[in-house]
Amino acid sequence: MPPTARALPALALAATALTACTGTPPAAAPSPAARPTYELPARPVRSDETPLKLPPVRDGETEFTLIGIASGITSISGSHAEFTPKGVYTRVRVSVANNGRSSVLFRTGRQELLAGGRVVTPDYDAMNIRRQPESFTLGSDMRAEFDLWYLLPPGTRPTAMRLYGGASLYDMKDEEGARVAIP
C-alpha cells in the first residue's frame, strides 16, 4: 500500500477529532424549575417577644419551626382570668406543618422545653388562660401556629425543645421527637 494511502485514514481521523474539539460545547442540561413559594405578608413580632430564625426540624412527616420566644413573663391574663405564677413563664411561638398524607392527632402538652437541666411540659393553667389548644387534628398538608407556655423557676434559661409530631407510620408510638436548640 502506498504511503499516501496509509496516511489518508489517519488524516481523516485527525480532522474529525479537531472539528470535535473546536465546535461549540454541548448545551447544558436544563435545570429543574424552582418550585414557586407562597408570598405571605410579614407580621410584626409581639412587643415582648424575640423572633427566632431557626431552620425547621422534622419528626416523621411533621415539620416544626420555632418562630418566637418571650421569657421572664411574671403574670398572664386572658378573657376569663388573670394569674400570677410561682415562677416565670416562657412562651414559645411554634409553626407546625403536616407534610404527610394522613391526619395526625397533635398534642401540645407533649412538647418539651429543656431548661436548667430539667424537662418541662406546657403549663396547663397558662395554656388554658391563654386559650391555647390541648390537642387538635393536624390534617394532611395543614399548617398551624400557636403558643406554648412553660412555667420555670426565676433565672432559668431555656436551651432546647423536643418536639413530637404525633403518631405516624414512621413512629407509631410517637417516641422519637425532634430536638432543636434555642439560642
Structural overview:
Residues 25-57 are annotated as: Disordered. It is a single chain. The chain is mostly beta strands. The protein has helices at 3-22, 124-129; strands at residues 50-51, 57-59, 62-73, 76-77, 82-83, 88-98, 104-107, 112-115, 118-120, 135-138, 143-152, 158-163, 178-181. The chain has a domain at 51-171: Sandwich (Immunoglobulin-like), CATH 2.60.40. Helix content is 14%, strand content 37%. Strands 1, 2, 3, 6 and 11 form a five-stranded antiparallel sheet that branches. The radius of gyration is 29 Å and the shape is elongated.
Quick structural overview:
It contains 2 helices and 13 strands, in the order αβββββββββαββββ.
Main sheet characteristics: 5 strands, antiparallel
Q: Separation of termini?
A: 83 Å
Number of helices: 2
The helix/strand order is HEEEEEEEEEHEEEE
Query: Which spans have pLDDT < 50 for at least 5 consecutive residues?
Result: none
Task: Kindly report the CATH topology of the domain at 51-171.
Answer: Immunoglobulin-like
Radius of gyration: 29 Å
Top CATH class of the domain at 51-171: Mainly Beta
Arithmetic mean of pLDDT = 87
Q: What fraction of residues sit in β-strands? A: 35-45%
Report helical residue fraction: 10-25%
> Which class best fits the helix and strand makeup?
mainly beta
Number of strands: 13
List the helices and strands and how they pair.
Blueprint: H1 3-22, E1 50-51, E2 57-59, E3 62-73, E4 76-77, E5 82-83, E6 88-98, E7 104-107, E8 112-115, E9 118-120, H2 124-129, E10 135-138, E11 143-152, E12 158-163, E13 178-181
